[in-house]
Amino acid sequence: MQNATSHLSDSDLILAADGELDFRRAGQVREHLEACWVCRSRQAELQCAVAEYVSAYRGELDAALPAPEGPRALLRSQLLSAAAAGGASSHWKWATVLAAAAVVIFLAWPGGSGRDLSEPRNFLTPGETRTTALDDVCRVQDGGNRIVPVSLREQVFQEYGISGAHPNSYEVDYLITPALGGADSIRNLWPQPYSTVWNAHVKDELEDQLHELVCAGKVDLGTAQREIATDWIAAYKKYFRTNRPL
Questions:
Q1: Which domain holds residue 94?
Q2: Which of 18, 91, 190, 241 has the fewest CB within 10 Å, making it most exposed?
Q3: Residue 236 to residue 245: CA distance in whole angstroms
Q4: DSSP per residue over 82-107, as a string?
């Protein structure tokens, strides 16, 4: 972990502002920012510069960006608001240096070509549970799988910036499976690909394993929910004692 004398990279600062870091790294960056005013100031400068670039070249970018609905438009709105609140720019001398980075950030949003969605974006899919007694969880015998309505699937794809997705390429998956008390909520769903190493089929194995351990009294239900929501891949490695899918 970097300390206050070893400052965060510009890449980390931009990705943190966009919610693009994985859960663990995002926590580390938040902790560093709380202790380091230099990095907090630098992050504000970077956000302002990107906002100014987007504002100045909005017409060119709009052609490449998705429809106004969804997280990219929200981010752009937040950046533009931040730039307006900051007054006249003092950063144009290096804003153009960030221009290419700004385009990459916008065009490489989750769902873009090559993005790895083995794990969900925490700011979109933090996980959500319903009030469930252990007896109710363990009464489920079929894994508690539910069919996600088409309208909700489309909403999930839209949130993740995925357009024209082939329905067989992804499983709109529950982060916390219903068999462990997961809620039927968009905050608990993400488009998990079948083509990655840590794919939907591998996660299904973990879900079955955790359900069995919880109902055998070997793992607390709250612990299982928390571990699968925080980092399901780390949970798989822990409970199957392997660094790769079996």
A1: 10-107
A2: 241
A3: 8
A4: HHHHT-S-S-HHHHGGGHHHHHHHHH
